[in-house]
Design brief:
This protein has 230 residues and is α/β, with parallel strands linked by helices. It has one domain: Rossmann fold (3-Layer(aba) Sandwich). It is 27% helix and 26% strand. It contains seven helices and nine strands, in the order ββααβαβαβαβαβαββ. The strands form two sheets. It has a seven-stranded mixed sheet. α6 links the parallel β6 and β7. α1 runs parallel beside α3. The longest helix is centred in the C-terminal third of the chain and has 14 residues. It is globular and about 40 Å long. The chain binds S-adenosylmethionine. InterPro entries: Methyltransf_16, SAM-dependent_MTases_sf.
């Protein structure tokens, strides 16, 4: 993807508020978006759904090590960090502006110890190999170009083999009935569990004070190594 200079574009913050149902806890995050039509410059509907999932599991995230792939403006990673996880954000090593977006989102939320790395799907780079032990890998709307599906899963399978107890938490926007990752999951010996949106209060057109989910069809999945591989 060609990247034009951010300096020619306007940046505006979008605010999300996650509420605790019973205990009155809430979390406000502010995500700077670049008014530019390229991927990775603004928050996608999938990101709000994944962030809501993280918020609902916030107690378990404390002190966990979490890596976000294809983070773009990084709403899920920022929420994980705010919930006490040690977060590493990543995006394509070839798109420095997306990495800049990751850093800008951290700054906007006073997160000073989040690492940002260039990790391109399907590439076993030194940065990928040198990652610390991971508990959770995040991917919001990373299955959006069928030609990249296998590269995403190659990276995920590599990471899960090095961290057999880790899980890949991912949200997927249905854009075509013809697209599927089923064959690829089988090829890379991965299992997939579908998580119904209603189980984490995300089956609504409006989430975290945002109308982004709207009537998009977003699915939540947890991908792990096939158990006979662990
Ligand atoms: C549809 S956007 C989703 C962005 C963000 N996760 C969200 O949901 O708001 C896809 C993201 O994947 C990143 N991406 C695309 N190709 C990639 C690759 N080959 N390796 C790593 N990241 C990639 C893009 O830069 C972009 O940030």
């Amino acid at each position: 993807m060609a990247q034009s200079g951010v300096e020619t574009h306007c940046i505006a913050c979008r605010v999300f508020t996650f509420d605790g149902s019973q205990n009155g806890q809430s979390l406000l995050v502010s995500i700077p978006e670049v008014l530019d039509p390229q991927y990775g410059m603004y928050v996608w509907p999938c990101a709000v759904v994944l962030a809501q999932y993280l918020w609902m599991r916030r107690e378990e995230l404390r002190d966990k090590t979490v890596l976000e792939l294809g983070a773009g403006v990084s709403l899920p990673g920022v929420v994980a960090a705010k919930c006490g996880a040690k977060v590493i954000l990543s995006d394509n090593a070839q798109t420095p502006l997306c990495l800049e977006n990751c850093r800008r989102s951290c700054e906007a939320n006073s997160l000073h110890d989040v690492q940002v790395l260039g990790l391109s799907w399907g590439e076993i780079s030194p940065d990928l190999v040198q990652l610390p032990k991971l508990d959770v890998i995040l991917g919001s709307d990373v299955f959006y170009e069928p030609q990249d599906f296998e590269d995403v899963l190659v990276t995920v399978a590599f990471l899960l083999r090095r961290n057999p107890k880790a899980e890949f938490w991912t949200t997927y926007q249905e854009r075509s009935n013809d697209w599927s990752i089923e064959v690829l999951l089988h090829r890379w010996k991965l299992s997939c569990l579908d998580i119904e949106l209603k189980t984490f209060d995300a089956d609504k057109p409006e989430l975290a004070g945002s109308t982004l989910p709207g009537n998009h069809s977003v699915l939540m999945m947890i991908i792990t190594l096939k158990t006979d591989d662990i």
